[in-house]
Structure formats: structure tokens, C-alpha cells
Amino acid sequence: MAKRKPKFPLLYEVKHKRKRFSKKEREIIYKRYDYKCNECFKDLSVGTRRKRVLDHIIPLSQLGSNELSNIQLLCIECDKKKGSKVRPYAVKKRMDELLKKQEDRKRGRSK
Questions:
Q1: Which fold has domain 18-110?
Q2: pLDDT digits over 9-24, tens only?
Q3: Rg of the Cα trace of the chain?
């Protein structure tokens, strides 16, 4: 007998797929962080292409998204240290961005 799918999937059943970012999206992220690692502030500009990583602030495994506002620039060393952990200050920064976006939308509708 076939297994029935639940009407509403549980949170842990929702899976996000990794996204390959376009060149334009990568440039936006690099410029946002001024080509510096968001953890140790190491310069990741020219000649360090293989040493920079686009990392999810809130990991996909913890219901993060592929939105550009959830992506940060890290060096390989900091990315390995971070793993799939969530940094509290990064979550606060992300929440502030989302709240600001929400307020801007409300203002746009009320005009």
C-alpha cells in the first residue's frame, strides 16, 4: 500500500535546494562586503578567487533561503569554522533587514 503524503508537510520535511548564483549576483554580494570576509575581514579581492565562499547566513538545513540578503562572503577558513551553525549577530542583522523590507512594503501600499 502506498504511503499517503501529509496535507501539510512538517518543517523538517521542507527542503531547499542550493542555488548557483549568476555572475551579476556574485558581484553584488562581493561589493556588498567590499571583497572582505564577513568574519575575519581578510581581503578577498584579486588573486583569491578560489579562497572565497558564498555562505548562507541561515543555513538551508535550518530553513534558510537562497535570497541574496541571506548570503555572505567568507574565506574558506571561516566557512569551515562556521559549518552549519548560525551566528546570533548574523540572524539579528538578517531579521532587521527583513523587518525593514516589510515596513517599506507597508509604506508603499499606504501611499
A1: His-Me finger endonuclease fold (3.40.1800)
A2: 444 444 567 778 999 9
A3: 17
